[in-house]
Specification:
Distance between the termini: 34 Å
Bound molecules: uracil, iron/sulfur cluster
Structural class: alpha/beta
Helix content: 40-55%
Strand order of the largest sheet: 1-6-7-5-3-4-2
CATH topology: Uracil-DNA Glycosylase, subunit E
Oligomer: single chain
Length: 283
Amino acid sequence: MNTRRASILREMGLGPIWRTRGAALENAVEQPASLPTPSEVVVEPGRRPSQPQPEQPRRPAEPKPGVSSPIVLAPVNSPTSQPPHDRRLVHIASLDWDALENDIRACTACRLCESRQQAVPGIGDRNGAWMLVGEGPGAEEDRRGEPFVGAAGQLLDDMLGAIGLTRTKNVYIANAVKCRPPLNRTPQPDEIAACLPYLERQIALVRPKLLIALGRPAALSLLGQEIKINAARGRLFRHAGVPVVVTYHPAYLLRNQTDKGRAWEDLCLARSTMTRIAGDSEN
Ligand code: URA
Ligand code: SF4
């Protein structure tokens, strides 16, 4: 094992798993082309289809006609005739960064506003090629107003470091819900839906090349459907034309260390997808 690979695996706490899993993982590190070929699944965001979407052949990263943002802007020229919900979507879709963050901090669109200390809009490089989406703020994030500053954040930093990234450079980090769910419970689907326009606007402003959904609530938000991580990982989805890789939430990995090897494979998929996209855009 070379020194860099050894340090990557150490960073992710993968030493023991590395030894038991042997050559398969080594190949994944050194030969991204040998990773299982992901099947691409085009999912229209904002929908809640009852059946999983059929798998599609590989396709390049351009937005697919017909796969559009769930924010419907059609009645924009008659604002007074719009229902309040539509007006909210139109309003959020028009905000610049500062206005967006102010709007989030003042938001009362779901019950999570009642128990928060402060909303946590997001952090990082607003032009990042990578965008990570977590679940929602925990206690420390609620206190500090920044995502992933607690124990899960430390592991997230290690995961980013393992693929040569840091949270401040070329990466933007947001959450499916911007306010802390009481007692760190899982955000409910209606809360995720209420907060989705903010995430949509963040994605539209960042224009990432790749999205990573950390855990099931993030995947629900980005894919518009309930998935199981074990079934969704290793596949490429899309949100508004942007490829989405799904992996475990770092807080889950803290409790289930044996799945760190799988998370590492997911990060390899993310990295090889990014390399492919970057190569395509040069041609
Ligand atoms: N877990 C999350 O999903 N997001 C955070 O910001 C912190 C912990
Ligand atoms: Fe608003 Fe999102 Fe906070 Fe709910 S979680 S109050 S929708 S900012």
